[in-house]
Amino acid sequence: MVTKKIQTGNSIKFLSLFAIAIVVSSCGGNLPETTQQQSAKADFLTIEPTTAEMLQRYPGTIEGAVNVELKSQVTGYLDKIYVKEGDYINKGQSLFKIKSEVFQEQVNNSRASLKAAQASLATAKIEVAKIRPLVEGKVVSPLQLETAQAQYEAAAAQVAQAKAALGSSQINANFAEIKAPVSGYIGRIPKRIGNLVTPSDTMPLTTLSEINKVFIYFSMSEADFIIYTRNKKEGTVGNTVQIIMADGKTYEYNGVLESASGNIDQSTGTMALKAIFPNPDKLLRAGGAARVVLTKKVNSALLVPMAAVKDLQDKFFVFTLGDSNKVTMKPLEIEGRTGVNYIVKSGIKSGEKVAVTSIDALTDGMKVNPAAASPEAFKK
Question: Do residues 208 and 68 lie in contact, with contact meaning Cβ atoms separated by under 8 Å?
């Protein structure tokens, strides 16, 4: 009897709960409007064609217009260093000195050899002058005069040889004093006083860079080079370029673009180019880095703010406004960028409205509460 009463009580409770659920369900349509899902609010920008400048950036390295590696042309011990790393020096200024005693002795030896040769030449000349009248008077045979003349010519050759040896030894002595072939900035000086230097050293004594004008070398892919060449022919790009320096600022002077090579590098598939920039303030230094910026003029360009583009797995999408205020998620193909906008190659058409706010809250097919966005905010 006890068991039966318990089961009856449970049944009554179950029926009560079921009845309450039915009542709540039937009243769901009469809940307050604030509990219903609201439409998302989003600002939309109408896309219209315009003229734009597309920017392409390439990493580059800076070199001086003249970069000279200075090496010793004679072997010897480094005796003096007249400059410091980073100094600006003028053409002809002394930079290094190699101990020159041995070279000076070679000069002295060559000078002595020259004097000896000149003395022999004088003796041979006297001999010729002495024999000639004897031959004319038929006192001696003409053969003796010919022999004396040959000895004179040999002595003259020895004088010329001695003069050449003296000149060579003087040149070597002058090589002991290493001077700047051009004006520019001194690079690193790895050698110290007392170090042995030779012409076969792999590392130069220093480098000298003339940076009144600099070259910035960079490479573009074969496809980019073909497009650039075609655009140049069409007049949408020119030879004037800009650079962005290592601190992120745009260099105040414009440069001129030139080819650095006539062929595509087969190992990398790239074309080497160089941009030539004036450098009156010596702000750009050899060995530095910069980004070369090429500008292309695009007519009838469709610009979409970067803030309006959703990036999913390296693919780009935007939300466009359709009928009944519902949004459609569309893929984009990006051609380039300018300022805060992407230049669209395909994916949307002129006159379409693109969401520029709340894009993270939007989904394909969602109904929205649209508002017009100001175009002025996206013209930077």
Answer: yes
Lookup result for tokens 């006890």: 2
CB 177 within 8 A of CB 185: no
Question: Tell me, what's the pLDDT at 131?
Answer: 85
H or E element in which residue 172 lies? helix 142-175
For the chain, which residues score pLDDT lower than 50? 1-37
Instruction: Return the DSSP state at 326.
Output: B
CATH number of 74-97+176-203: 2.40.50.100
Q: In this predicted structure, what is the pLDDT of residue 380?
A: 58
Q: What is the distance between the alpha carbons of residues 188 and 201, in angstroms, rounded to a whole number? A: 15
Fold of 40-52+299-378: 2.40.420
- Considering only CA atoms, give the Rg of the chain: 44
| Cα distance from N-terminal residue to C-terminal residue, the chain | 87
- Architecture of the structural domain at 101-175: Orthogonal Bundle (1.10)
The tokens for 105 are 């002795």
